[in-house]
């Protein structure tokens, strides 16, 4: 149990909607633990397409796609297709392009998946009565989005919503990283790191091969253009590899310790039962370890996606 002083601090931070002595049908409520009822999830998220209309995030997401497609262009048209070794081009092309597709798919799933948004404006008397609170329990209201704030939820000023287990808001995926899309963000960082390392390796081999022969025989482009394209690719790969490898390690560490980045920065003491190491990984990726953990298409239903996009009345909802 928390101490009395700690409970008071929590009440100040989360703005309790019902304070001690408030009269409701379930009895008088005193300071206690936060509760989030079964209806605290983003119910609209199952029926609409999630997308954040943030100009900075959309620009960053577009740049991400452009850089990945640029890497694909250089690898395929500068290094692999001009190669005289058919099997070398085929195997490396299939591997690199497969990883790139998985990276872009993971990016899309991270960007278009509801991260765990709490329903906006659900702080109504009817909803509070439906929670069937016990005496001694306190619920908290977010003054910014006027919603009941579950435990471990934080408000995002860009998404304008409270997000369950919010880790951080990432402009490169134009979305928050939270309870429902963290696995896709981890896959995105992993696959970007892999294709960056792969591109660096292919670039090194290409430079080494072309030094031994004439540059005109190594590429369909002129030597000057080929060198410039490869240099930009190497710079991009080094930056992406460094950034995504660090982010991947940070995310795995957070999952294994059941502590989000916001909770770590705020030094919040856990009031929940922690899921450590493999239990944390299973809760994020779902089920026991398997190759499905690496599949960003898991749970994706094309028919449902088409219905969300074209079949619903009023079209897709763009969350702001």
Automatic annotation (TrEMBL):
- Pfam families from the entry? DHHC
Top EC class per UniProt? Answer: transferase
The residues covered by the Palmitoyltransferase DHHC domain are 141-267
Which Gene Ontology terms of cellular component type are present?
membrane
InterPro entries listed in its UniProt record: Palmitoyltrfase_DHHC, PFA4/ZDH16/20/ERF2-like
Domain notes for this protein: The DHHC domain is required for palmitoyltransferase activity.
Name of the protein in its database record: Palmitoyltransferase
What organism is listed for this UniProt entry?
Answer: Larimichthys crocea
């Amino acid at each position: 149990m928390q101490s009395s002083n700690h409970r008071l601090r929590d009440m100040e931070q989360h703005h309790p909607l019902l304070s001690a002595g408030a009269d409701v049908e379930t009895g008088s409520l005193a300071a206690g633990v936060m509760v989030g009822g079964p209806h605290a999830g983003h119910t609209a998220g199952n029926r609409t397409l999630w997308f954040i209309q943030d100009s900075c995030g959309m620009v960053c997401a577009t740049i991400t796609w452009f850089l990945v497609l640029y890497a694909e262009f250089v690898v395929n048209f500068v290094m692999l297709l001009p190669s005289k070794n058919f099997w070398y081009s085929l195997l490396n092309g299939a591997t690199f392009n497969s990883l790139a597709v998985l990276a872009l798919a993971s990016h899309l799933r991270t960007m278009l998946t509801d991260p765990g948004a709490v329903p906006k404006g659900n702080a109504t008397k009817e909803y509070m009565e439906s929670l069937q609170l016990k005496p001694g329990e306190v619920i908290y209201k977010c003054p910014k989005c006027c919603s009941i704030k579950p435990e471990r939820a934080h408000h995002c000023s860009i998404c304008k919503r409270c997000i369950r287990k919010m880790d951080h808001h990432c402009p490169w995926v134009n979305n928050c990283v939270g309870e429902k899309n963290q696995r896709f963000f981890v896959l995105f960082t992993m696959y970007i790191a892999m294709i960056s390392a792969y591109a660096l390796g292919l670039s090194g081999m290409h430079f080494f091969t072309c030094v031994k022969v004439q540059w005109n025989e190594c590429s369909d482009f002129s030597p000057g253009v080929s060198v410039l394209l490869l240099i930009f690719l190497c710079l991009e790969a080094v930056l992406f590899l460094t950034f995504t490898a660090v982010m991947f390690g940070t995310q795995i560490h957070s999952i294994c310790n059941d502590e989000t980045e916001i909770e770590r920065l705020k030094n919040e003491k856990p009031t929940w039962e922690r899921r450590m190491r493999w239990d944390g990984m299973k809760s994020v990726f779902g089920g026991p370890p398997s190759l499905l953990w690496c599949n960003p298409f898991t749970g994706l239903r094309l028919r449902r996606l088409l219905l969300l996009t074209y079949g619903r009345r009023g079209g897709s909802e763009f969350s702001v």
